[in-house]
Write a structure and sequence with these properties.
Layout lengths: L1 E7 L20 H14 L8 E9 L7 H14 L1 E12 L6 H8 L5 E7 L3 H7 L5 H13 L5 E7 L6 H13 L4 E6 L7 H7 L8 H17 L3 E4 L2 E3 L6 H7 L4 E4 L4 E3 L3 E5 L3 H9 L5 E5 L2 H12 L6 E2 H7 L1 H16 L3 E4 L2 E4 L1 H4 L2 H8 L5
Length: 376
Amino acid sequence: MAGLYFHIPFCRKACHYCNFHFSTSLRQKPAMVDALIRELTLRVDYLPQRQLDSVYLGGGTPSLLSADDLQRLFAAVHQYYQITPEAEITLEANPDDLNAEVLAQLADSPINRLSIGIQSFSEADLRYMNRAHNATEAHRCIELAQAAGFTDLTIDLIYGSPTTSDAQRAQRLATALAIGIPHHSSYALTGAPNTALDHFIRKGKAAPVEEDKAARHFEHLQDITAAAGYLHYEISNFALPDRFARHNTAYWQGVPYLGIGPSAHSFDGQSRQWNRAHNAQYLQALARDEVPFEREELSIPQRYNEYLLTGLRTMWGVQLDKITQLGTDYREHFLRQCQTFLTEGLLLETAGAYRLSAAGKLLADRIALALFWEED
């Protein structure tokens, strides 16, 4: 079934590593909620079916929304869609927003899953990243969420920070696993272009990111989570059995979804479209009952490349029969290009399914790129 995504483009503070679309000014938040509802109304026919298996509020910082904001958004969703009884409904949240009162309100809302941006339990890491919360809040918000009745929790963690030694990273990962969270996402710290961190590193004002350290942390992450019973079901995601993120898994498996809000992306199976990443322009367009977006119809080569890029990130890998459905030329190209990686042990094949080995996961993007079909 289809999924629905809302992009909430506001944050209290700009993290130095972040290159997502957001504003630290909350002045337009009431108008933005109105615009999100208006866009949902205008695009209700984008998805061919009216049943939703997942709803995801991301950003930005959706935990900045008030209880009234959430009520209005979900009232609009229910006006146009049926949310299945077992649907996963996720809200991304920052630790500094999650006190007992807020969590009680969230527990009374349709939200049944929290994705908490912990990033680190270390004060030094959090200061380097310019996070708004501290280590005490990182621990406390999880305890409060569990006390409020949230059993479906996931936390975001970042590894590879120059402020974290290998030994410290191991200890902090052990801390995270000991909490008993059923799911977590771990990402390598990067100095992405046009971020504050990239600027500070180039100016010599911040320690540079060490790729070798990130690789060591990732290898340790794979070993420790496996020993603790977690399945490494996507490059950056780890879950106990049957606790996979349903919404994100749908992305990786090519399920259609509708994205609402500035910078939000949508996919209908044949094309992708994305909204303009500019709050003022988005609001102005919706005031005219227009949605400011660009659209791309996917060619067969693009569909092949996307299938490889997303499928190889998962533990299910890519299926040879699905590649063959795109054409025998693609099957032959794939089989020819993957031989070296199979020989090197970076790719594994079982009954027509090709997936990355533990070593191959370190080179996921490079391997996918080598397997791509180059359009004329």
